[in-house]
Amino acid sequence: MNYAAVSSQIELVKNENLIDLLEQRTDIAIRIGELKDSTLTASPLGLSQIRILASPDYLAKHGTPTTVEDLTQHQLLGFSSLEKLNHWPIYDAFNNLLHIQTNIKADSGETLRQLALCGTGIVCLSDFTQQDIKVGPLVQLFTTTTLKIEQPINIVYYRNKELSKRVSSFIELMKQAVKS
User: Fold this and answer.
1) What DSSP designation does 76 have?
2) What's the pTM value of the predicted model, to 2 decimals?
3) Residue 126 DSSP class
4) How far is it, in rounded angstroms, from Cα 114 to Cα 92?
5) For the residues of 84-110, what is the DSSP string, one character each?
6) Where are the alpha helices (H) located in the chain, listed in sequence order?
7) Cβ–Cβ under 8 Å, residues 32 and 153
8) What is the pLDDT of residue 22?
9) 65 with 73: CB under 8 angstroms?
10) By the 8 A CB rule, do 46 and 108 touch?
11) Which helix (DSSP H) or strand (DSSP E) does residue 150 occupy?
12) What pLDDT score was predicted for residue 69?
């Protein structure tokens, strides 16, 4: 293959905010969570469970919470942009999803992950952290009482005509990557 002849370019942009694909001249986006009605076409990639996590260093310094009430004595990390993401998958005293009062907020799940990895506090994130749990830099809390709440993961794109080869190839690549 003559690589000099390939004129397609790929630019990956990480943005936690919902963007207008046409306005931003973006071919596809990956969205986690329930999709709003729109003119976008969605292609499901899978589901991602949310979990309550902390680093072993944080727990060694501050203790491991064993009840929901214990969480009020801890540094809680949450989202600033979407308040619904601050409802954690565990029941409060009134049998509702726990709505946390955050000590530190960020608009990026990756920023919150990095804060948790550094021992800053307790966080609730999606299963993209599974490698962190397996290797050990993060520990799942409330394993027996965490509700199984899964968020859909979709690739979204405009389909007002036939998809370009690069877009359809990327979608297939992502689907294969999620399966493995």
Assistant:
1) B
2) 0.78
3) E
4) 27
5) GGGEEEEE-TTSSEEE---SEEES-HH
6) 56-62, 109-117, 130-135, 165-179
7) yes
8) 66
9) yes
10) no
11) strand 150-157
12) 94
